[in-house]
Design goal:
ten-stranded antiparallel sheet, single chain, 23% strand, 463 residues, alpha+beta
Length: 463
């Protein structure tokens, strides 16, 4: 799954529907440059120079025009490298040689129209989009291999599908913001990521209204224009991914106890906000280690509206295992059945004095009692019996143990999730002895040694 970021309220109202006779807003990349009979420069030579120039390029400021140029270009080059893509190759080479003269630093100083035109060309080459107009049906971008066949509109009156999503937003924030919106529709996020700037393609409604699929390298949903969701709690618990770069060693007092965040001189801002827990574990050799723990909120909900089948879109370009995710436009608060506050203990500690918390290594997960959006009586009024039955069935699949007992362990895989204990870990098997809350007054909670495997817990929850 693409990383699953947060939403906010006060999103702008959708633009008025275009007339049914209007053409699809996105054109083929080839419309920007006539298809040449022969490339002016061999593609391999261009890529060699691009690699050399990129190494000289200074790291762009996050979300600057140059940063977005690199983001869109990555997918465009992935698409252009395939057979029959000479027009796309020529467009990319013209951008670098004619428009930029290989001077990437000039991107941030260019006016809005030329930057938007350049980014739009790369978007049209490397991404595929689909939307659902107000007047019905589905509309796709006009590229030759569009993804409209990978989308459908789900009506809960005809079929019932349950989805799962994990976020760093608190339950209170989810309620206040009335569910989840796409990042491009959230004023605060659009401003932070410069999406609302006139030089960005997504500032234009004709591009912002699409669900975009990254067709070049990543072969997944663009998480800024798509809400990515999974099929079960074990899979989505790996998200949002922890950006472990820059996390220093846990500061400790001379007696070995971990200090409260208020005394951490090296940890500032997000470090203190995201590192809420430390798990003290004992490995199979009897040694003690400290692992980082983060708090997330994972919720189950009713899927409705436009749905992008991400693996189906990716099968056009690869034969490898595809992550089972779906892309949505919106998740309404009333469609959320239950939300579990969760603590993820990341199965890796520091390396070279920095944390390494890969989702592929896995987590031990603690679940707290869930929050519900409505009472049972309200659910009976809102949902028909088949929907309530589906919710109940999915709820029963959630592993039963509750905090302070661990609920399950799982690791991210290309196919969804796997058992974290089956993966290699530098310490081998380990048990969590203490879960330490990193508040101003740290508390220690003793977690009993698990007596059953995660699969045993899962089976017990179904009885």
């Amino acid at each position: 799954m693409s990383d699953m970021p947060q939403s906010d309220q006060n999103a702008p109202p959708p633009p008025p529907p275009p007339p049914p006779s209007s053409p699809p807003p996105v054109r083929q990349a080839s419309s920007h440059a006539p298809a040449p009979s022969k490339l002016g420069v061999p593609w391999a030579d261009f890529l060699k120079r691009l690699d050399a120039e990129d190494k000289k390029m200074a790291i762009p400021a996050k979300y600057s025009p140059q940063w977005w140029f690199v983001y869109f270009r990555r997918e465009a080059i992935g698409v252009a490298g395939r057979k029959g893509q000479d027009p796309a190759k020529q467009t990319i080479m013209d951008i670098h040689e004619k428009e930029l003269q290989w001077n990437f630093a000039k991107i941030d100083g260019m006016g809005a129209p030329p930057v938007r035109n350049m980014l739009t060309k790369l978007l049209q080459i490397g991404f595929r989009g689909v939307r659902r107009p107000w007047f019905g049906g589905l509309s796709s971008d006009a590229t030759a291999d569009n993804i409209i066949h990978c989308c459908r509109v789900v009506d809960p009156k005809k079929e019932v599908e349950i989805g799962w999503r994990s976020e760093a937003r608190s339950w209170e924030a989810i309620v206040e913001q009335k569910g989840t919106k796409r990042q491009v529709e959230v004023d605060t996020l659009a401003k932070e990521m410069k999406i609302s700037e006139s030089w960005h393609p997504f500032s234009q409604g004709q591009y912002r209204n699409y669900l975009w699929f990254r067709a070049g390298v990543n072969l997944d949903s663009d998480f800024r224009s798509v809400i990515s969701v999974g099929e079960d709690i074990q899979t989505v618990i790996s998200f949002p991914q922890l950006d472990a770069e820059g996390y220093p060693d846990l500061p400790k007092a001379p007696n070995g106890l971990i200090l409260a965040p208020c005394s951490w001189s090296l940890w500032k801002g997000d470090f203190q906000k995201n590192a809420q827990y430390v798990a003290r574990v004992r490995d199979s050799r009897g040694q003690t280690h400290d692992l980082l723990g983060t708090r997330v909120y994972v919720y189950m909900f009713l899927i409705r509206g436009l749905v992008l089948n991400t693996p189906a879109a990716a099968t056009k370009y690869t034969n490898r295992a595809l992550f089972p995710e779906k892309g949505l436009q919106h998740i309404a608060l009333d469609d959320i059945y239950a939300c579990f506050p969760a603590i993820r203990v990341h199965h890796q500690e520091k390396e070279n004095n920095h944390w390494v918390c890969s989702k592929m290594i896995g987590h031990t997960v603690f679940l707290k009692d869930p929050h519900f959006t409505m009472t049972e009586q309200q659910r009976r009024c809102r949902y028909p019996e088949n929907v309530r039955l589906k919710f109940d069935q999915e709820f029963q699949k959630v592993p039963a143990p509750r905090y302070p007992r661990p609920a399950f362990s799982a690791a991210w895989t290309d196919a969804g999730h796997g058992d974290a204990k089956k993966l290699k870990d530098p310490r081998g098997e380990f048990d969590i002895a203490e879960l330490i809350s990193l508040g101003d007054q740290p508390s220690v909670i003793t977690a009993p040694r698990p007596t059953a495997s995660p699969s045993d817990h899962l089976q017990a929850s179904r009885k």
